[in-house]
Design brief:
protease; 17 helices; seven-stranded parallel beta sheet; seven-stranded mixed beta sheet; Subtilisin-like_FN3; Rossmann fold; Alpha-Beta Plaits; about 775 residues
Length: about 775
């Protein structure tokens, strides 16, 4: 009997072990994640009289327990749900299913500007009508702080009759938080909560309220009301105003502590289309993929076909090449440049040398004497101790001293917090080669300044060579008239366009460095938990800041030209952008200190006053975009995935990206090698033709425009036929052909030029980027 008990016990142990072993792969197989399911709406079986019921039936055919997180009808036809990989694969085989795409995670791309853009001195040029106040700017971001003075609706008339949106309530947000300025506020969290679980309302508001600050900053940049006497601790003081200060704002909260998820973003675009916004501003981005697999690009396509201009940030992955996001040709892709304003703070060394930096510190001043100076790498036992990461500094070695930290890995303001926690008296933050000479100001928690790479190297040499190094920091406040300006920000993402090399991106640049705008009351200007300060305005940088500048300027143009399409508005902004300073020199790239190229600045830096009356525009229709997809050799299913409708490419027609009516030129040439009669190889010429069509928007008087060509080098010949275009009536169209002829060059060679049409009053410019592959 005892032996039987022992055998039974051993058998039981064996069963448990086997179950445990078997449980691992079963659990892994059944792990669910969010998928966005694209349906072919017109393939709904006759047995269903409602698409949502059909969607649910299709879903239940593969999983009885699965529920729809969202259903979509405007951005796409379909729904979002949680499935295992096996269930997703099974669903792909169901009738009427176009694509089952895994969800993507997106990240945020994070009032001097009106004066810098000449809006204030030329305010009388913009029509004083109610048209601007009828324009609605939709902002997809972290939500809104409705108490910001930038949302004051004093003097604004009734909400536009076209508005179909709503003011949703939730944690710390009521109907009273919306008004005639902030006319709409919604939040989308189903995708985020499916991935992370229920939102912890003790950490963030499950409502449109902005607990981060980013969303309030972007929305007030685009369309904030005038606020006199705005500043951050006295820095950048003056009148704060959004680009379209009389436009309405509708906020769609899609980003949370853990990020922004494509199912939520797509739901917000879907609702924004239904709400009748005129402009959509998205300062976020993720990995790039083919357009039919990119749910943001698909949603943007649907918005564009409804007459909504979609403006997106280019990304903060510069100065690396091929670092762009949001590159679809129906999206206006915005890079970042600097203003002519700075916040100097000097590191004054014990050897008598001063090094210029920047800072937004405001607090107790340093003692009026030089303090001991220590390099973080010599005051830490940790790997990468020079980076001042949390817990790496030895308090006994930094107490009462100013610490030199190197930039990298953790946030700039976090480094200052680490120094302060260790007892340091201040910080000098030195750029490394990755950041070069680019200086971004921060509202540090302790006296601190940020210096460029060359200054950082010299300061580090001083510390390491002097037996008793000392330093102090001298804060100079706000300085205007900085030259040269603008320059392309080092962090601004660059071309070429990895998805479609034949489309030049970014489209243009706008102010994105040290931008002041409204802020949340939930966190301090650094966003750090240990920052107790609360401010009404904050100064931050990123293409997140440049994007809403263009969104707001697009709203201004929409108010002035209500019949213009999104493509016409983008064209006006691009063809009037400038690429040179008043002295004729090309806008600099701060990452290299050399002239920037169209891969850095696109068509150039935005000039809204000129864009108001561009003379001619390159317009595009939905059919043009569909033909563009045909030129990419997309299948019917892939085109349906982007366009939400049946469209078959004409097999008898030749489609070419070269004929796509974009306001810029990206020419891709192949290196051609031909065998000689004696067995040698010789290089041949490549010839490529591009066609474009210009539309007269200068009125019935029209005009005669002559072309001028800036060829990049003798190796490239550019000709335009015809070289003169005459317009005699409003909205008249004229076409021309550009022929590019170039000798063979090594692979990955790039050259740049420009084409301009002018009637003596208007200049319609287009950048040219030529690459050999």
């Amino acid at each position: 009997m005892g032996d039987f008990k022992v055998l039974s016990f051993m058998f039981l142990i064996l069963v448990v072990m086997l179950l445990g072993v078997c449980h691992v792969p079963v659990a892994a197989e059944q792990k669910k994640k969010t998928y966005i399911v694209h349906m072919v709406k017109n393939q709904m079986p006759a047995s269903f009289d409602d698409h949502n019921i059909w969607y649910d039936s299709s879903l239940k055919s593969v999983s009885e327990s699965a529920a729809m997180l969202y259903t979509y009808d405007n951005a796409i036809h379909g729904f979002a749900t949680r499935l295992t990989a096996q269930e997703a694969e099974s669903l792909r085989n169901q009738p009427g299913i176009l694509f089952v795409l895994p969800e993507m995670k997106y990240e945020l791309h994070t009032t001097r500007t009106p004066s810098f853009l000449r809006l204030e001195e030329n305010a009388n040029l913009f029509p004083v009508t109610d048209s601007e106040s009828d324009v609605i700017v939709g902002v997809l971001d972290t939500g809104v702080w409705p108490e910001s003075k930038s949302f004051d609706d004093t003097g604004m008339g009734p909400v536009p009759a076209s508005w179909k949106g709503a003011c949703e309530t939730g944690t710390n947000f009521t109907l009273k938080n919306c008004n005639r300025k902030l006319i709409g506020a919604r939040y989308f969290s189903a995708g985020y909560e499916a991935a992370f679980g229920p939102i912890d309302v003790s950490k963030e508001s499950k409502s449109p309220r902005d607990d981060d600050g980013h969303g309030t900053h972007t929305s007030t940049t685009a369309a904030g009301a005038d606020v006199p006497g705005a500043s951050l601790f006295g820095y950048a003081s003056g009148l704060a105003r959004g680009m379209a200060n009389r436009a309405r704002v509708a906020v769609y909260k899609v980003c949370w502590i853990g990020g922004c998820f494509s199912s939520d973003i797509l739901a917000a675009i879907d609702k924004a289309i239904d709400d009748n916004v005129n402009i959509l501003s998205l300062s976020l981005g993720g990995g790039i993929s083919d357009y039919y697999r990119d749910n943001v690009a698909i949603g943007a396509f649907s918005a564009t076909t409804k007459g909504i201009l979609v403006s997106c940030s280019a990304g903060n992955a510069g100065p690396n090449a091929f670092s762009l996001s949001n590159v679809a040709p129906w999206i206006t892709t915005v890079g970042a440049g600097t203003l002519d304003r700075d916040f100097p703070a000097f590191a004054s060394l014990g050897n008598g040398k001063n090094f210029s930096g920047v800072s937004l510190f405001k607090g107790d001043p340093l003692p009026e004497k030089l303090l001991p100076f220590v390099y973080a790498g010599n005051a830490s036992n940790a790997t990468n101790g020079n980076l001042c990461m949390t817990g790496t500094l030895i308090p006994e070695m930094v107490k009462g001293k100013i610490v030199l930290c190197d930039r990298g890995l953790n946030a700039r303001v976090q480094k200052g917090a680490v120094v302060k926690a260790a007892g340091g008296a201040g910080m000098v933050l030195a750029n490394t080669a990755a950041n070069g000479e680019e200086l971004v100001a921060d509202a540090h928690l302790l006296p601190a300044t940020a210096v460029g790479q060359e200054s950082g190297d010299a300061i580090r040499d001083y510390i390491l060579s002097d037996p008793n190094p000392t330093v102090t920091i001298l804060f100079e406040g706000t300085k205007l008239g900085i030259e040269p300006s603008p320059v392309v920000a080092a962090f601004s993402s660059r071309g070429p366009n990895l998805i479609t090399p034949g489309i030049l991106k970014p489209d243009l640049i706008a102010p994105g460095v040290n931008i002041i705008a409204g802020w949340t009351g939930a966190v301090g200007p650094t966003g750090l938990a240990e920052d107790p300060r609360r401010v009404e305005f904050n100064i931050i940088s990123g293409t997140s800041m440049s994007c809403p500048h263009v969104s707001g300027l697009a709203a201004l143009l929409k108010g002035a030209h209500q019949d213009w399409s999104p493509a016409a508005i983008r064209s006006a902004l691009m063809t009037t952008a400038y690429t040179v300073y008043k002295n004729g020199q090309t806008i600099l790239d701060i990452a290299t200190g050399k002239a920037s190229t169209p891969y850095d600045h696109g068509a150039g830096h935005v000039d809204p006053v000129s864009a108001l009356n561009p003379g001619l525009v390159y317009d595009l229709t939905t059919e043009d975009y569909l033909n563009f997809l045909c030129a990419l050799n997309y299948t019917s299913s892939e085109i349906y995935g982007v366009a939400r409708g049946n469209y078959s490419c004409d097999s008898s027609k030749t489609y070419s990206i070269n004929d796509f009516n974009y306001p810029s030129f990206s020419v891709t040439l192949e290196t051609q090698v031909f065998g000689g009669s004696n067995g040698t190889s010789t290089s041949g010429n490549s010839v490529v033709k591009h066609t474009r069509t210009l539309t007269n928007v200068a009125g019935s008087s029209g005009g005669t425009y002559k072309v001028s060509i800036s060829s990049p080098s003798p190796s490239v010949k550019i000709s335009v036929e015809p070289d003169t275009l005459t317009f005699t009536k409003d909205n008249e169209k004229q076409s021309y052909t550009v022929t590019f002829s170039a000798s063979s060059m090594p692979s990955n060679t790039n050259e740049f030029g420009r084409i301009e049409w002018s009637d003596g009053k208007h200049v319609v410019g287009s950048p040219i980027a030529i690459s050999w592959v």
